[in-house]
Structures are given as C-alpha cells and as structure tokens.
Amino acid sequence: MAKRVMPETRIDEQLFRLLRNPGQYAALAVLIEHSASKSDIARELGVKLNKADYDVGELEKIGFVEPVGTEMRRGQATTIYRAVMRPVFSSEEWGKISQDERERYALWAQQLVLRDIAVAWYARTFQARAESHTSRSPLRVDEKGWIRLNERLDGVLALGREAEVESVERAREAGDESKLINVRVAMFSFEMPSGAENPDT
What we know:
Strand order of the largest sheet: 1-4
Helix content: 40-55%
Number of strands: 4
Order of helices and strands: EHHHHEEEHHH
Structural class: mainly alpha
Radius of gyration: 19 Å
Shape: globular
Oligomer: single chain
Strand content: 5-15%
C-alpha cells in the first residue's frame, strides 16, 4: 500500500472527547502507523477484541479512521482500517485541556516512544544513521524564555511535517516510494520541581 501524507486536524470537541478515552487514542495511534484489522489492534494493544471493535467503531463514527479493504484470514473476510486524520496540538490548544488530560496523553506518548526505541534498538536502526539526534538539556529559563523555547519546538514539529510532505512528493514524482525512511521524532519540554537537585551540576 502506498504511503500517504496524512491530513492533520486541529483540536476541537471531538478531539477533547478522544483525549478522554485512552483506548480510542491508542487504537488511532496504531492506525496512524499502519493499516490493521480490529484483531490486529487488539493483539498489538493487548486488549480484548470487543474493546478494539468498539474503539475502532467510535473512531469511524467521528471520521478519524476508515475501512480500506478486506483480507481473507482463516477463510473469512477481515476488514482492514487506516487512519485518515492525524491530530496535532499547538501550545495554545494544549492549554485548553486539563492538566490531568495532558499528563495522561504525555504518559501514553512516552510509552509509545519507549516502544519505538525498543523496536529500533532491537533492529539495530536506532543509531544506524550518523545524522540522528539524541539530546537531553537541563536548562534554566524565565517565563519569556519558556514561551520562546516551546514556540521553537512547535516550529520544529511543523518543519517535520513539511519534510514529510516534500519527501513523499519527491518519491511520487520518481515513481518509487519504497526508499522513504520510517522515522520517529520525539520532543518533550517540562518543568522540574523548583527544589529538585540538578544531577548535572
């Protein structure tokens, strides 16, 4: 199946509802990465099939996923789904949801990042490219610096989306999408407790 540049959707009431349902968001994450059946999603997430069936059904109702065909498995036609929207959040939109919801989403995102690292590490692709980036930066900033820092991180995210669009367009012009590189980019910025000791000093 050809790789697609997935449209993005900004935060709205449907996304607020989705953030409050970690099961549906997890199912959406699977379908953002690759097409899958409900049983594939249940197996990947370690949930029961009826749970995956419900979550995918709800995602289909609000237009975030769609069926793309069927495959014969064990003599039965199995529906395959894919994501059609990839939710993204600006710093301003992120502030519209509660701290508990932000923490729940951040924890889930970190779990996905750790899973991605484990997969790449096992496959020996994690540091296969010398241009890959790994950093951890303890910083001290004032409120203006904090805002500027996160605006720049939003800009890096936008740059990543632009790089993906341009890459897919070049691949399609060349008639070969097989050389597109499967990449993960993870960014976190967060405040440490004021009294916490800095192990780097």
